[in-house]
Amino acid sequence: MRVEGITPILNVSDIQATFAWFEKWGWKKLWDWGTPPSFGAVGSGNAEIFLCLGGQGGRGKGKNPATFGPNGDQTADKGAWMSVFVDDVDAVHRVCVAAGLDVTHPPTNHEWGVREMHLRHPDGHVFRVGTGTGEHED
Q1: Of 45, 81, 86, 101, which shows the fewest CB atoms inside 10 Å?
Q2: CA atoms of 79 and 45, how far apart (whole Å)
Q3: What is the largest CA-CA distance in the chain?
């Protein structure tokens, strides 16, 4: 078997607001389906994410202000977690902070060789946005 690609599907409570949320950190709305829309997609580069209004997976934002680190809780949010690799996580962080998005873990160099931040969607989906550092501890 050879997988050609994978497209996650996120359960969202407001599809139009989700299109706008993704656009704030550099994604583009690719298409929507239905009147009013109940399904659609966003994309950036070669990556694509489907959005489903009220279905296909779980969602739920936790009360945790941080998703990682000493006071973080990785289990409170009930949405999907995804890793998104970018060329400059610090630039993405600046864009997200300026847009007022929920950054739950600032850019941090981790021992697994990734400089990573966490970004939380209003429905509890968490994006681990990172850039490889070329270094890691064995």
Answers
A1: 45
A2: 23
A3: 52
- Whether 19 maps to a domain, the answer reads yes
Integer Rg of the chain from CA:
15
> What tens digit of pLDDT does each residue of 10-61 get?
999 999 999 999 999 999 999 999 999 999 999 999 999 999 999 999 999 9
3-class secondary-structure state, position 85? strand
- What's the CA dihedral at 83, 120, 11, 56 to 10 degrees? 40
Instruction: Please report whether residue 106 resides in a domain.
Output: yes
Is residue 136 helix, strand or coil? Answer: coil
Assigned domain for 110 exists? yes
What's the structural domain count of the chain?
1
- 20 belongs to a structural domain: yes
- Let me know: does 42 contact 29? Beta carbons within 8 Å: yes
